[in-house]
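Weekly structure sync, notes
Attendees: PL (lead), two postdocs, one rotation student
Agenda item 3: pending single-chain targets
PL asked that the sequence for the first pending target be pasted directly into the notes so everyone works from the same version. It is reproduced below exactly as submitted, 551 residues in total.
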Amino acid sequence: MKNFYKELLTKVSICLLCVYCSVTNQTLAQTTTINYQVDYSDFPNPERGFYKHYETTDFTSDNVSPQLDLAQLMVARGDNKTLALRLFYLNKFKNTAIAASYLNGIQNDMNTARQAGVKLILRFAYNSTNQTMRHSDDASLAIVLQHIAQLKPIFQANADVIAAIQASFIGTWGEWYFTHPDFTNPDNSPNYINRKRVVDSLLSAVPTSRMIQIRTPYYKQNMYGNGSTGSAAAINPILSYNGSPVARLGHHNDCFLASSTDFGTYLNITEDKNYLEAETKYLVMGGETCVVNSPRSDCINLGGDADTELARFHWSFLNADYRAEVLDRWSSPGTCMNNIRLGLGYRFEMISGTFANSVELGKLLQFQIRLKNVGFASAFNARKVILILRNTSNNNEYSIPLNDIDPRRWEPFQSVFDEVDIYRNIAIPGDFKQGIYSMWLQLADPYLSLTSDPLYAIRMANTNMWEAATGYNNLQHQITLLCPNQLSLTSTKDDYSTGTKSLVANKSIIGQNTISGGKVSYSARNFVELKPIFEVKQGAVFETSFDGCQN
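Predicted structure, written out during the meeting:
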């Protein structure tokens, strides 16, 4: 009879266990879907938008003058401008090395930008005249290469606050026109060997994480092209972001909309525009306007091309200071300035998220996120995507990197096929603590100096989502981390007579040791059980702990 009851009890226990497992599996399979609301306001985001222009004006000093002003940069950032174009005129050094004091001044500007929470677009030039006969105002190839070599340590040490670098160094304003005989004149000369040497030197000096902007499509095709024209000459998605020269050479247009050719930006208008449209899906694009050219330089509702071409060529940034007459026309009532302000660069809108309500420690967390990029461009620099779990009781956080997600691949939205659908099964480590956690998404700068700085994190364009203090986006869902249902016992039976021993188990520890003159600590998730034969001799120390995940 005793065996009968024992057998019956065993069967009942097994049945109850099966029911419990079934209920648990159903609980873990339950999900919640959140539909996010769009935020239509203007707000700052890194590496996009209107930029401020700052240049040195003392052409005779061995020092950078004026230096970047922290207060000015912070005011600009308060006006949602996270970029500044920094133009260094090297007139004083067109025949000699850059003075150490000037190099120190450049580093000081980098430090100021980092303190202000902005990034810099760098340009270097030797003159600001536009007279074709004054070639002596520019530097020779040998001097340019010497200067790039001097600047390399600065580029390498400050890539975190460099958004992009313009090829510059050649011609008036660093725009590759009206230049030294070493680089040939006029610009459409077939001899580009020396120009290519400058770009090659820059590609070597600048970290591979950063792109270099070329002034016209023709320059890049001439130096790095495959003989094709139009969209067939453009970089393809497979080669994008691979660190090769063609994947790092973007574009800038400093006479946007100024004429049918944008003052020589395009030689073959149709082919060059098709090329630029295809290229800039994967490369940085920015610049400035330079003259009123109505109706072409006006908004589309006034018969112009401004907003349509900014979107077509995937512009990420535009000069906020030049040219004022063009920008003023965009700002007149009922025109396009607000759309341009929001559209420059990327703008990520969360659509929905579906998340598991609970998950066991050591198991997989399932979630799905849908979003779209309603900006003109993709993000052109890499980003870290991190899932943050924050304990609702004590605010302790766990960070789970989503290393296979690349926001640079979130291309501008044109149809439902351009929506980004992220579905992941993420392993929750067994050493996390049980509890209720809010879920957050961080799109952080990959440089360690900036990863935890909220000023350099990407904000989603959704309401009730942004946490300014951390740079996190609130996914508006809470998940429960549960203790495992089944125990996996770890038995430790060794005799520890000397030294120090730390025994850590994911679940449980059963100890039956003899300790003599040493120290043993036991730490387990579920429980620590010391058997009756556990013996502690004189002079020995032992400690036990479990983290509360006890069934």
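Discussion points:
- The chain has eleven helices and 27 strands.
- Residues 1-28, 486-491 have pLDDT under 50 and may be disordered.
Action: rotation student to compare against the earlier draft before next sync.
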